[in-house]
Amino acid sequence: ENVENTPAEDLRDEYQRLADDVRRYRYAYYQQDEPLISDAEFDELYRRLEEIEALHPELVSNDSPTQEVGGEVSAAFAAVEHLSRMYSLEDVFSLEELTAWVEKTFASTQNLGLAAPRWLTELKIDGLAVNLLYRDGKLVRAATRGDGTTGEDITHNVLTIKEIPRELSGTGHPAEVEIRGEVFIPSKAFEEYNEVLIAQGKAPLANPRNAAAGSLRQKDPAETAKRPLSMYVHGIGRHEGLDLTAQSDFYALLKDWGLPTSPYFRVLETLDDVLAFIAEYGEKRHELIHEIDGIVVKVDQLDEQRQLGHTSRVPRWAVAYKYPPEEVHTKLLDIQVDV
Ligand code: NAD
């Protein structure tokens, strides 16, 4: 049904149902690590919700799922406040939308009198976001993203991941720094782990993303330690006393400190370069160490990031391009989406 030609009254019921469904699916995905539908199906419902809200803002409630970073804190873990907020990412599903985003962001920087942005282009790792807090070079806390303000304390579980240093190497560690990244299970390790489970007569894990999330959110760290978890860092939170001009410089510093940075990112100058990167990894996506569900494009300059700012849910200086789904499941809900 075309949203544009439908009066708000007729959409109210559909809107409520959609919002409830999105909340329910998010709960299963984030709290139970057991999705009820595929990501592509979820994205479609979420898009429809956004589409209705864009045309009928009067329907938007304060607790709409579009106003929040998905994921609450489970009572099984201690709640911890992040020192600076963690955000989600704005999604785009076509190269046209990606192009429009790049052009819009370029124009915003020009209106603000800033230099042309450089595009820090990365793989979107299909894993679980984790916030590491280092004080004077020592890992003191690790937490899930949660609702972006408050996460779950999973320090003991994160300490079982061998790539994550308990103490940073190198020099120049600030009194406090938050380092964000993605915990994932490498594709090969995932297959091997499932073979072992099957040989033991146990049920295999459904997919690497949910397996990583489920593994990290175990009550018993000894159980987490058995899972082949790995991590790449891709973000900064609080970082007082660190004088940096670009996020890519931060990655170089993190590498010096012994943190696992991705070998795949590039700093690109033009939209064409970004589109070529997307095409390249669209071909290579199954030859990589980990699964990806898209490409993340970020403005590299930190001053520009600050000036562009963020909404309640996402930064305005980054976007996630999602590759078309490779396997589309049957639709659960009978809705049509005009794309
Ligand atoms: P998201 O996963 O689309 O994007 C935000 C996250 O991307 C960040 O939190 C970060 O952890 C991660 N990320 C990976 N690589 C990154 C990189 N290089 N740089 C920066 N960030 C990177 O957003 P979301 O809000 O966490 O969740 C939405 C996703 O979860 C969608 O893909 C959706 O399909 C899926 N989901 C599925 C269901 C379901 O029922 N199947 C339910 C809820 C959400």
Helix-strand layout with pairing:
Elements: H1 8-31, H2 39-55, E1 79-81, E2 91-92, H3 95-111, E3 119-125, E4 128-135, E5 138-144, E6 150-152, H4 155-158, E7 176-184, H5 187-199, H6 208-216, H7 221-225, E8 230-236, H8 247-256, E9 266-268, H9 271-284, E10 292-299, H10 302-308, E11 318-322
Family: Belongs to the NAD-dependent DNA ligase family. LigA subfamily.
Active site: 124 (n6-amp-lysine intermediate)
Protein name: DNA ligase
How would you portray this structure in words?
The radius of gyration is 20 Å and the shape is globular. It folds into two domains: 3-67, Orthogonal Bundle (Helix Hairpins), CATH 1.10.287.610; 79-322, DNA ligase/mRNA capping enzyme (D-amino Acid Aminotransferase, Chain A, domain 1), CATH 3.30.470. It has 339 residues and is of the alpha+beta class. Helices cover 35% and strands 18% of the residues. A five-stranded mixed sheet has the order 2-11-10-3-9. Residues 25-26, 29, 35-39, 42-43, 70, 88-89, 91, 122, 124-125, 129, 145, 182, 234-235, 293, 296, 320 line the site of nicotinamide-adenine-dinucleotide. Belongs to the NAD-dependent DNA ligase family. LigA subfamily. This is DNA ligase.
Q: Could you list some keywords that capture this structure?
A:
339 residues, alpha+beta, Helix Hairpins, D-amino Acid Aminotransferase, Chain A, domain 1, 2 domains, 5-stranded mixed sheet, 4-stranded antiparallel sheet, 10 helices, 18% strand, disordered C terminus, binds nicotinamide-adenine-dinucleotide
